[in-house]
Amino acid sequence: MTGLPLDAVLGLARALIAAPSQGGIDSPAGVLEVAAGALGPLGLGPRILDDAAGQPVALLAEIEGGGAGPTWVLNACIDTAPAGDRGAWSVDPFAGVIRDGWLYGRGAADSKIAVATFCHLAAQLAAERRRLNGRLILLFDADEHTGRFGGIKRFIAERPDVAGVMVGYPENAIVNIGARGFWRAVVEVYGTAQHSGAAVAEPPSNAAVKLAALIQLLSAVKLPPAPDGADFPLPPKLTVTAVSGGAGFSMVPNACSLNVDIRLTPAFDAAAAAELVGAAVEAVDHVMPSTRATRIEALESWGPYRLAPENRLGAALVEGAARAAGRPVPGEVCGPSNIGNYLADRGIPATCGFGVTCEGVHGADERIEIASIPLVWDAYGHAIRRLMG
């Protein structure tokens, strides 16, 4: 497949990188303005989506084909992880530096190159609209790295009838047609506040000590492996991701908390995760009782998913990836949860990644290999034309 305007794609990607959009740090207005400014001259009328508070959370553009058909979505996040310690970078993270065949910058891989590529691919498809059936929507979420996923949630509330979504996450060894889900909770344990130097016969109940015991118990849990021969080959995983509580040196803490993240599979669901954490909490409360029982606050949970081999969306991208790469590219599940899980929970098929070759995602010197852009262009171009042709 031909027609990739590489210089234009790179130019837009660099302009997007130069508009900082660190989730929870920068306002997304600037980067959305850059993307909207690019879509207009490409013949695609952009529209900003606001959340319930009136804040911009996404950019949307639509192409209507000449015939009737389903609605398909090309999605990418336009916000990014924080740049972190700039001293660890060899370049300015917002300069969009090109060096030795690589484009550097925060968000280069995740996922501003996908935004730039999808914009120009959509413009090419718009010129073919009379030969296409159905509707193609570009959706760029500016509220993903905050963990709120405000853009996709706002969009689905407005358009729940979409037939499928292809998310432009990076990496290209496989086509991600599924992912583990997650169950998350904040667990707070309690003790008795007291001066750490008090002369008492019995040491007070120390929330920090109790929390340490709970962490040790959770870390020692043996989760079940993936069943032999399962089409979902990944096991569940438990991680304590944050610890907080206590202050200074002279006070025995009376409350401490931890965050626990459990990755889910079809064989180990949210109910199993809640039961596991509940049993650990009950065991620690029994051995180390305090005036208040440990509290578990379950947060948002998304289930695992895997597209069936016959699913149109997954089959189209697997075929497009294989044609573009000149080799078989299997459709497989991935470990990290993503927006595909949210969509799957709402009955919307999604692929969650086939993209550029990259390094340093969420770390210093995030970069993408420019030579891998044609692979992405051809794969998605074939997939959309197959779905809408």
Helix content: 25-40%
Strand content: 25-35%
3D shape: globular
H and E string: HHEEEEEHEHEEEEHEEEHEEHEHEEEH
The averaged pLDDT comes out at 95
Q: How many strand elements?
A: 19
Give your account of this protein's structure.
The chain is α+β, with helices and mostly antiparallel strands. It folds into two domains: 6-179 and 304-388, 3-Layer(aba) Sandwich (Aminopeptidase), CATH 3.40.630; 181-302, Alpha-Beta Plaits (2-Layer Sandwich), CATH 3.30.70.360. 31% of the residues lie in helices and 26% in strands. The protein contains nine helices and 19 strands. The strands form five sheets. The protein has a six-stranded mixed sheet with strand order 1-2-6-3-7-17, sandwiched between helices. Strands 4-5-19-18 form a four-stranded antiparallel sheet, covered by helices on one side. A four-stranded antiparallel sheet has the order 11-13-9-14. A hairpin with a 2-residue loop joins strand 4 and strand 5. Helix 1 packs across helix 3 (108-126) and helix 5 crosses helix 6. It is globular and about 80 Å long. The mean pLDDT is 95.
In short, what is this structure?
This protein is an alpha+beta fold and 389 residues long.
Please write out the topology.
Elements: H1 6-17, H2 29-39, E1 47-50, E2 56-64, E3 67-77, E4 98-99, E5 102-104, H3 108-126, E6 133-141, H4 150-158, E7 164-167, E8 175-179, E9 181-190, E10 194-195, H5 207-219, E11 237-245, E12 251-252, E13 255-264, H6 270-287, E14 295-302, E15 305-306, H7 312-325, E16 331-334, H8 339-345, E17 350-351, E18 358-359, E19 367-369, H9 373-388
Parallel strand pairs: 3-6, 3-7, 7-17, 8-16
Antiparallel strand pairs: 1-2, 2-6, 4-5, 5-19, 8-15, 9-13, 9-14, 10-12, 11-13, 18-19
